[in-house]
Amino acid sequence: MREDITFTAPGATLRGWFYPAADAQGPAACVVLQHGFTAVKEMHLDDYATHFQAAGLACLVYDHPGFGDSDDLPGTPRQQVDPWQQIRCIQHAITYAQSRKDVDPGRIGLWGSSYGGGNAYVAAAIDRRVKAVVGQVPAISGSETFKQLVRIDHWAAMDAAFAAERQAQLNGAPPTYIPIVAEDPAAMSGLPTPDSWEFFRHYIDKPGVKWKNETTLLSMEFFRGYEPGAYLPMIAPTPLLMVVAPLDRLADGGLATAAFETARHPKQLTLVPGGHFDAYTGKGFEISAGAARDWFVRHLINPD
Q1: If residue 110 lies in a helix (H) or strand (E), which one and from where to where?
Q2: What DSSP state is assigned to residue 70?
Q3: Whole-angstrom Cα distance, residue 10 to residue 199?
Q4: Residue 70 contacts by C-beta under 8 Å, 6 or more apart in sequence?
Q5: How many Cβ atoms sit within 10 Å of the Cβ of residue 71?
Q6: pLDDT at 304 over 80
Q7: Where are the domains of the chain?
Q8: pTM of the predicted structure, to 2 decimals
Q9: Which fold has domain 3-141+227-301?
Q10: Residue 13: other Cβ atoms inside 10 A
Q11: Pick from 137, 119, 102, 23: which is nearest to 62 by CA?
Q12: How far apart (Å, rounded) are the C-alpha atoms in residues 155 and 292?
């Protein structure tokens, strides 16, 4: 049970799905879900929403601006990942959820995965309408992750490429696009790990999924300067659940577990076996979705 929805961000229409809470007797608690780097809602977000829905939670799932079914924001090329733009759109999604008669505006939760996990932390820290937050396999530090994924002898070339791209766009050139994933992890791509290729390759030209294997070069510069982990101490008193894969080699699980210690209570850490993408399927999904469901039920439906 879900309905297609639209809501507005300044100058654009964002599109997604709304899942009404199962067996609701009135306005229900609602969880807003958004995905990670370049991903779209058909990449397992429906699985999480259905899981939460069965527990009595309404869910709002949508595509970030410039991705999937959502429009581009004015002045921003399609397929560009701008974290602060995405965070503002999370806030618009919350406003839309609160406007619905079947949603209790005082019981809004926020869920994000990977890059979207970092977004969720920042949004929860700056927007007190969020009453519980879950970030799984989260991005913590763009600068540290950049150092891990890009060889040190390539850093100067990347600096030069970013500077040249900005100059070219100032002079009217179209944006430069790079692949998000490549079969060869040594090739230029946004996510240069073998497990990234294995996850995303199944969505290349897949019918019904509007995912494209490209992103702008400037998306990588934006990512390098993005530090969502710095906002973790600011989330309290909003309850925080971090779902971390210690063996994550894309969004380093070690960075995430260390960052958890900087957050204030109430907080909880749940560990998922395997790597970054194991959280979405099989035993990993059972753990990640179950922990998030229980967290939202505890803090949005049955608060102490």
Answers
A1: strand 103-113
A2: S
A3: 32
A4: 12, 13, 14, 15, 16, 62, 63, 64
A5: 17
A6: no
A7: 3-141+227-301
A8: 0.97
A9: Rossmann fold (3.40.50)
A10: 12
A11: 119
A12: 37
